[in-house]
Design goal:
Layout (H helix, E strand, L loop, with lengths): L4 E5 L3 H15 L1 H42 L4 H34 L3 E7 L5 H4 L11 E7 L12 E6 L2 E7 L6 E7 L2 H8 L9 E4 L3 H7 L14 H9 L16 H13 L3 E2 L5 E2 L1 H6 L6 H12 L3 H13 L14 H4 L3 H18 L8 H15 L4 H7 L4 H23 L16 H14 L4 E8 L6 E10 L5 E2 L14 E9 L7 E7 L5 H4 L4 E3 L9 E3 L4 E6 L1 E3 L4 E2 L3 E4 L4 H12 L34 H6 L5 H10 L5 H5 L7 H7 L5 H17 L1
Parallel strand pairs: 1-3, 1-4, 2-3, 4-7, 6-13
Antiparallel strand pairs: 5-6, 8-9, 10-11, 10-13, 11-12, 13-14, 15-18, 16-17, 17-20, 18-19
Keywords: ATP-binding, Helicase, Hydrolase, Nucleotide-binding
Organism: Arcella intermedia
Protein name: Helicase C-terminal domain-containing protein
């Protein structure tokens, strides 16, 4: 082919690296050596062939003379000799033609091929190599690229384009929440764009490795809009904030799937941004989430991080989750047909050494309870190292330099946004960019905040079952998703796979092109007892347990009880949870009981020996209406805490006196009136004094 660069379009990074390896082994530095050898061998072969034939002819002639001298009975030997002679000559001619052809091919090639990959995850300095000028008479540039080279860049010197007609696309299942990669046909628009890359500076040629029949039958007209391939939670939240309630009927330019809209609404309900009880209207939390340029999940994590005094750490985690996994993977996977791909034992050993080195380098960052905390540790080390030697640091620690730079930039952006938001509040505060190693308490809090942002991404360990026999495997597990019947698996690269915890929360569920099973990314171990507090919209509570019975908590000033919570549509039973006794008559019965027992107001304990009945009968079926009369005033005025009771006594000092007297022996009635209301005068007057002081100031 005439000189000129070649641009080859492949579907993904793994395919690009494999093809680059093949091209380099065939036409890279090896090509120049091969050409020299071919040229030398060509001259040498011509002379040798001539000499070899002459020698063989002489030997044959001598053999003929010998045969003649030996007599006529040796005719058979003559035939064999002629057959050998014919065989030698034919083989020499074939070899000569083949080697001459090979030599001719190499002589027509440029002396050197420069094979370069180009894809988005390639470090910037390696991406820029494709723009370096090369002499087309001396070097043929071969760029193997993804669709990144379709429209966004123009590579100089490209004359030939080879289009595989395939593209690797990231898909999102709005029903299961699974992200997966799929290799499919490019769109016709993309194919035309690829063809246009040939001959931008001179006449060019495009080679399409697919038939016109496939092009007409299988290639879509245009690439699917991005709104179809990603969650649209932020779109739904923005529309709700603008007062658009009927999102399904909104005239989108590219109408998203109805499942995507419904999933977006459900997600916002789960994280508390929409109120299901109020016709899915936006909540105050939802309005606060609008201010952040990230997904609502991440925005909620940022808000919770401020409350937990670990905002710099959460900013780093959110930045990392928004950009992606910062760790490098060791190149493309080794294909199954190793022999055909030329994967030898030496290369396998080198790969093993690299894996060992990577484990040693990243071991200090590992966290047995969260992959995301490992990412956080890597970000902290990257920031501590400084930006001057950032690329070198990333290379030596198996980090993706481009991803780390994006995380660094997003951290700065989010920090500035937070500082602007908090500067206009009643309590101005400043978020520091400096990252200090989190304490153990902060690590637990970070895991809880991650769980709060992904309350619908909880998975529970279940045993792996043989589909044929129904037998459970001993040491094989999978994880069932909370909201669907889908199952996922822990990635072997995650340290959490070693412990196989009961409950996890995950960032992404991904199914690669080659993998047969979906696997989790960004896994964090959680305590199931956290879910009732963090995932309230997904929790259903049982009736209050009788054992242990409800108790009054003086610190919370509430009647607390134990319940059995269940999580999600699969109704996973969680550990017993303590919560405030739900409103209703039962709540006031227990409040009256503990009031009579002197637990809520200790000053009433002096009347315990003179009670005419045990107060615990109030929490059972009460038939005596006079005894139960203490409950009704509490219901009427909604008195279910000590604070509310004292506030009522401030306004009405005789409140409950008459009904309480029913429970006390008559000889103590005078004493009861003397101490009523049974609280210290200072406590009774405290609120009144505060009001006076406030009035004086104003």
């Amino acid at each position: 082919m005439p000189p000129g660069g070649i641009l080859i379009f492949m579907s993904g990074q793994a395919e690009i690296e494999n093809l680059c390896k093949k091209l380099r082994s065939k036409f890279g530095a090896y090509a120049e050596e091969k050409k020299k050898e071919a040229s030398e061998d060509n001259n040498k072969v011509s002379l040798d062939k001539y000499m070899e034939k002459g020698i063989k002819v002489k030997e044959n002639e001598k053999e003929k003379g010998k045969e003649k001298g030996k007599g006529k009975g040796k005719g058979k030997g003559k035939v064999e000799s002629e057959e050998k002679k014919e065989e030698v000559v034919n083989m020499d001619d074939d070899n000569e033609n083949e080697e001459a052809k090979e030599s001719s091919n190499f002589s027509k090639m440029p002396p050197k091929f420069l094979v370069l990959p180009l894809y988005s995850m390639l470090p910037p300095q390696q991406q820029m190599r494709v723009f370096n000028s090369v002499n087309p008479q001396e070097t043929r540039l071969v760029v193997v690229a993804t669709n990144i080279a379709e429209t966004s860049i123009t590579i100089p010197g490209i004359i030939y384009v080879v289009d595989s007609g395939r593209v690797r696309v990231k898909k999102y299942d709005h029903v299961t929440g699974m992200e997966y990669f799929k290799i499919e046909y490019s769109s016709k628009a993309s194919v035309n764009q690829r063809a246009g890359r040939a001959g931008r500076t001179a006449p060019g040629v495009c080679f399409r490795i697919f038939s016109s029949a496939a092009y007409n039958s299988h290639f879509p007209e245009f690439t699917e809009p991005e709104i179809f391939q990603t969650p649209i939670d932020n779109v739904v939240l923005s529309m709700k904030n603008m007062g658009i309630d009927k999102i399904e009927a909104f005239p989108f330019p590219s109408v998203p799937d109805i499942d995507a809209i419904r999933t977006g609404i459900k997600t916002l309900i789960h994280i508390g941004a929409l109120d299901r009880k109020n016709n899915n209207h936006i909540t105050s939390l939802g309005r606060a989430l609008i201010n952040f340029p990230v997904l609502p999940r991440f925005a909620k994590m940022l808000l919770l991080g401020e409350q937990g005094k670990c905002l710099p750490h959460i900013v780093a985690v959110v930045a990392c989750m928004s950009v992606g996994d910062p760790f490098l993977h060791l190149g493309p996977e080794i294909p199954e047909d190793n022999e055909n791909e030329g994967i030898n034992e030496e290369e396998k050993e080198q790969r093993k050494k690299k894996i060992k080195e990577m484990k040693e380098k990243t071991e200090p960052w590992q966290n047995p309870l969260s992959d995301l905390l490992k990412w956080l540790n890597a970000i902290g080390a990257y920031e501590f190292n400084g930006m001057e030697n950032a690329d070198k640091f990333c290379y030596s620690h198996f980090l993706h330099a481009k991803t780390m730079k994006e995380i660094h930039d997003l951290r700065i952006q989010l920090t500035n946004i937070l500082n602007n938001i908090y500067a206009n509040t009643e309590d101005p505060k400043k978020v520091d960019l400096e990252l200090t190693p989190p304490t153990n308490k902060q690590k637990t809090l970070l895991r809880q905040i991650i769980c709060a942002g992904f309350v619908d991404h909880v998975a529970k360990r279940v045993p792996e079952v043989d589909e044929a026999t129904g037998r459970e495997y001993k040491n094989k597990f999978k994880y069932q998703l909370a909201l669907t019947n889908t199952c996922g698996y822990l990635n072997s690269e995650s340290i959490i796979a070693q412990s196989a915890p009961d409950y996890i929360v995950y960032h992404q569920l991904i199914k690669s092109v080659k993998a047969s099973k979906p696997y989790f990314k960004g896994v964090t171990v959680i305590n199931p007892s956290w879910l009732p507090e963090l995932a309230e919209p997904l929790i259903t509570y049982s009736a209050p347990l009788e054992v242990p019975p409800p108790k009054w908590d003086p610190e919370a000033d509430k009647i607390l009880c134990f319940v059995t919570p269940t999580y999600g549509p699969n109704e996973w039973v969680l550990p017993h949870h303590q919560m405030e006794l739900p409103g209703g008559v039962e709540k006031y019965r227990y409040f009256a009981r503990y009031l009579l027992e002197g637990i809520i107001v200790p000053e009433l304990q002096e009347f315990q020996p003179f009670l005419i009945a045990q107060p615990n009968i109030l929490t059972k079926q009460v038939t005596n209406t006079s005894v139960a009369s203490i409950i009704q005033p509490l219901i009427d005025f909604q008195i279910d805490s000590k604070k509310k009771l004292i506030d009522k006594w401030r306004r009405d000092k005789s409140f409950l006196l008459s009904v309480f007297a029913i429970w006390i022996s008559k000889e103590k009635h005078a004493r009861l009136k003397e101490v009523w209301p049974p609280i210290a005068p200072s406590e009774l007057a405290s609120k009144h004094k505060k009001k006076k002081r406030h009035h004086k100031k104003t």
